[in-house]
Amino acid sequence: MQEHTFPTYFLSHGGGPWPFMKDQFGGRYDVLEASLQAIPRQVGARPKAVLVVTAHWEGPQFLVSASPRPGMIYDYSGFPPHTYQIQYPAPGAPELAAQVKQLLDAAGHPARLDHERGFDHGTFSALFPIYPQADMPLVQLSLKHGYDPLTHVEVGRALASLRRQGVLILGSGLSYHNLRQFGQAGAVASHQFDAWLRQAMALPPAQRLKQLLAWDQAPGARQAHPQEDHLLPLMVALGAAEREAAHVVYHEEDFFGALAVTSFKFG
User: Fold this and answer.
1) Taking the complete model, does pTM exceed 0.90, yes or no?
2) Of 250, 241, 249, 242, whose CA–CA distance to 7 is shortest?
């Protein structure tokens, strides 16, 4: 029987608790939702668990969620009252969390298990369209302070073996994340950076990595990402599938009326 190797993904996860606000947003998220709903078919087999690298969690070292029954973190403000009652009761996977810590420790990136961490909206808003039954075991991995891109690529490399053990690795962020210029004000920078990013992803692996490690030199880079927390999950997803081709699995030119946003699949 041939071994199944799961792809990895970088997901532009949208804003706030959007899957639970369809009446308010109308069809604004239809394209993103369809791209997320397509992932189970694309991966070709049901994973044993999902490892989510979330843009909404960081620490002085890498942190790994290890609760068997994670709670909820409503890390947003100004949304309707019902969005602070959302439940996404997917189980945790403490054994996978321990394995992730072991792999990172062995690779020289010491990690700490967090037995209290719940699901933030970068996790539950992205995962709800993919696994709406909330029956897929989930582990979250944080970013590390300093946002060094190579460090996050190296972490992806350390986790690559999980892909052959039934684990789907998802980097959850946004290809454009400037909340002060979210809309028409960010249109030019968004399109500049997104075009550069898609071009960089199409390069051979060594050239692609070189480009991404210098991402802040790209056109529109610092306007698209004043703080790169929502870009760094891409580095982990890339590192875990470093020699494999990138495929655009979601792209819009007029997200929120003006922005270019993209998601990628590796492998």
Assistant:
1) yes
2) 241
